[in-house]
Design a protein that fits this description.
The chain is α/β, with parallel strands linked by helices. Strand 9 and strand 10 form a beta hairpin. It contains 13 helices and ten strands. The relative contact order is 0.12. The strands form two sheets. It has a six-stranded mixed beta sheet, sandwiched between helices. Strands 2-1-4-5 form a four-stranded antiparallel beta sheet, with helices on one face. The longest helix is centred in the N-terminal third of the chain and has 52 residues.
Length: about 375
């Protein structure tokens, strides 16, 4: 479940909805065509033969009646036998009807699903998201920080806002941590920053400027995102790093740079087919640490200025976490890094840590400052 959600976020952030929608529709069409053909090929011959047998029986009975000059007593036993045969064949005809109805019903359901998905893609997503990189963008360059100002947000099914009047800044080329209890709104804050959800009020900005609607895609192009559970398709490592880009359009130099920055070279060299190694469904051929490093390489493919790690090491063992954190620390001072963490060991080297509770910034400072002045932060550090 978490892999799927992470994959959806990456698709939206990268603006690859059209490509993945096309893949889904193509795969669905192929499946239903194959399934329908299979049903027909497996059912028609048997039912066709039964239909011929039943029709022959009827014709034979009629012939016997005529041949025996309507003498029913002489042909009654034979008629009974054929009537019994017809009765036995009745379920076959019912099955034919059922199969046809099932095929028609599934085709109708598929058509409805296709219409709903197309409508959702066009209506629920703003134009700047749906069109992705095709939209004419206004370039943005932030010099000091990006920020959320006076943000209020609540999910439709909740009675109270999750976030209320929140203001938070992310200084350029700094490592910033977001920590706090589960459900405090950390991931939602990042979703708003990345333009995946719109706040009920307030705005996203940079350098004290308000980010305009047509600039959202430009900001998204500057962000690389790594989730807790990396979604991997059943393709090669190379295609998973490029994620959604057709194979003939993948930039090999970008792939090489991303692999180097993610400390993935040793993993690639250990695999039989290198970057062309198939990872299996959801990356079953790889370890958790290898999947995470592929996720980091994916986030670096376009050399973003901002890297967001949403509890990217929480499910890893201590040694693997250390390797991932070394890769993250190598970007310090070169990129703006935002770490959402539940395990506080991952934010020790942050320049600034925000403590989030009930959708509010209740405290901020360095790790040493918070662990000595904030009892909730200290308690969290003792538990993990």
């Amino acid at each position: 479940m978490s892999e799927g959600i992470g994959g959806i976020k990456e698709i939206l952030l990268l603006g690859r909805q059209q490509l993945f929608n096309k893949r889904f529709f193509d795969a669905s069409n192929n499946f239903f065509n194959a399934w329908g053909n299979s049903q027909v090929l497996s059912s028609v011959p048997r039912y066709f033969m039964e239909l011929i047998a039943f029709s022959s029986a009827v014709l034979l009975v009629m012939f016997l009646i005529i041949a025996n000059q309507n003498n029913l007593s002489s042909i009654l036993p034979m008629v009974s036998i054929y009537a019994l045969a017809g009765f036995k064949l009745l379920p076959a005809f019912q099955q034919i009807y059922f199969s046809i109805s099932t095929i028609q019903g599934n085709i109708a359901s598929y058509d409805n699903l296709k219409i709903d998905l197309q409508s959702s893609a066009k209506k629920s997503l703003p134009d700047w998201q749906y069109l992705g990189s095709k939209i004419t963008e206004e370039k943005i360059e932030f010099q000091s920080s990006i920020q959320l100002s006076n943000i209020t947000f609540g999910y439709p099914e909740t009675s109270k806002p999750l976030i209320t009047n929140l203001t938070i800044k992310f200084p350029k080329n700094q490592v910033i941590g977001l920590v706090g209890p589960s459900g405090s709104g950390k991931s939602t804050i990042i979703d708003i920053l990345m333009g995946l959800v719109d706040p009920d009020s307030g705005f996203v900005g940079y350098d004290e400027k308000i980010l305009k609607l047509h600039q959202k895609r430009a900001l998204q192009n500057k962000i690389g995102f790594v989730s807790q559970a990396i979604y991997l398709a059943d393709t090669s490592i190379k295609e998973n790093i490029a994620f959604g880009i057709p194979p003939h359009k993948i930039n090999n130099q970008k792939i090489a740079n991303a692999i180097k920055l993610a400390n993935l070279i040793d993993v690639i060299q250990s695999l039989p087919d290198g970057i062309n190694t198939l990872v299996g469904e959801r990356g079953v051929q790889l370890s958790g640490g290898q999947r995470q490093r592929i996720g980091i390489a994916r986030s670096l493919y376009n050399d973003p200025e901002i890297l967001v790690f949403d509890e990217a090491t929480s499910s890893l063992d201590g040694l693997t976490e250390k390797l991932i954190m070394e890769a993250i620390d190598s970007f310090a001072g070169k990129k703006t890094i935002i770490l959402i963490a539940h395990r506080l060991s991952t934010v020790k080297n942050c320049n600034l840590i925000y403590f989030i509770d009930k959708g509010q910034v209740t405290d901020k400072g360095t790790y040493q400052h918070l662990i000595t002045t904030n009892s909730s932060f200290k308690k969290m550090s003792e538990n993990f």
